[in-house]
Amino acid sequence: xxxMGRWGARGAVLGLGALWWWAVLRLVVAPGAGALEATVAAGxxxxxxxxxxxxxxxRASGAVGTGRWRRVLGVGGRGxxxxxx
Length: 85
Hints:
Blueprint: H1 4-29, H2 35-48, H3 68-73
Helix pairs in contact: 1-2
């Protein structure tokens, strides 16, 4: 992203962040805060715990192989203990 696209994305992030903080502060301070503020605050918190940094296992650096635990625990294989001397 370069130029206007980058600034547009930054503006959207800043705007949504400001909206979230407004909702949280209104819930804490204002006695008349209601469902709208609670929904915005809960939605923002829910997005913060979303695993957005996930990648497919095949592309992840340091990913454990598919059959590793089966080999270590000896389930369906030769066993976990090597009999080599």
